[in-house]
Amino acid sequence: MSKLIGPGKTVTLHFAIKLEDGQIIDSNFDKEPATFAVGDGNLLEGFEKALFGLEEGAKQTLKILPENGFGMPNPSNIQNVPRGQFDGMELEQGLVISFADAGNGELPGVISEFDDKMVAVDFNHPLAGKQLDFEVEILNVS
Fold it and tell me: What is the Cα–Cα distance from 89 to 127, expressed in whole angstroms?
């Protein structure tokens, strides 16, 4: 039976997601390994496809381009909000604030710039536009 990752397989792995400068965004190398079924939606498609063809026991660092990871920043995801909606808040560039979305879910936004009248809030994913290094150790393929 093939131990290569592809459609219909279940994969157990250790992983680390890093920025190009080596900063670790997420890792489970010091925790329990993750298990997912290919195509179950637990892993972004671009990360999943990068694993295709790797075999059990493989250790590799894969480059994930922005379009295969968290996408490119979309300028329409930057909203200008009246400063008055932030009364009493001390604003600073890079501050993450939680907003309610249309379905009353939580939607994080990052303050990108502000003045006395308006606040620009960036709702793009914080990793949008970034190339990532996806370090993996494939423990099991079934």
Answer: 25
